[in-house]
Amino acid sequence: MDSEPSYLASHGELATLKNAIGSWYHQDAYLDFNEDAEIWASMWAGCDSAGRRRLVNQLEQLLSRSDAEVLSVWNGESRAFRFDDGPEAREFLDSMLASFKVRPNC
């Protein structure tokens, strides 16, 4: 697995994923993009191949955990909106992962 870049060290575990969530799901995300699919496309385009591999791997790692952990990571990093429960956050992140897996260079 590709190691995290040093500039992401402050994010700790799942650093690439946490950075992506915080960077793309900021308070004006839905003014900059019309829908989540556009955000995910921009997120994918903003990563090099190593970053894309880390993003997919970290999403898979997170989704293998409890609903409470999935919810905690999302709500802790997103600046655009929060989920009320873990299954809702899981469904959203499952959709994000599926969109990444059909893109080139996955």
Task: List segments where confidence is low: pLDDT < 50 over at least 5 consecutive residues.
Answer: none
Shape: globular
Largest sheet: none
Structural class: mainly alpha
- Summed up, the helix count is 6
State the distance separating the first and last CA atoms.
14 Å
Q: Could you please describe the fold and organization of this structure?
A:
The chain has helices at residues 15-24, 29-32, 36-45, 49-63, 67-77, 86-101. The chain is mostly helical. It has one domain (13-101). Helix 1 (15-24) crosses helix 4 and helix 4 packs antiparallel against helix 6 (86-101). The two termini are 14 Å apart. The model has no long low-confidence stretch (mean pLDDT 92).
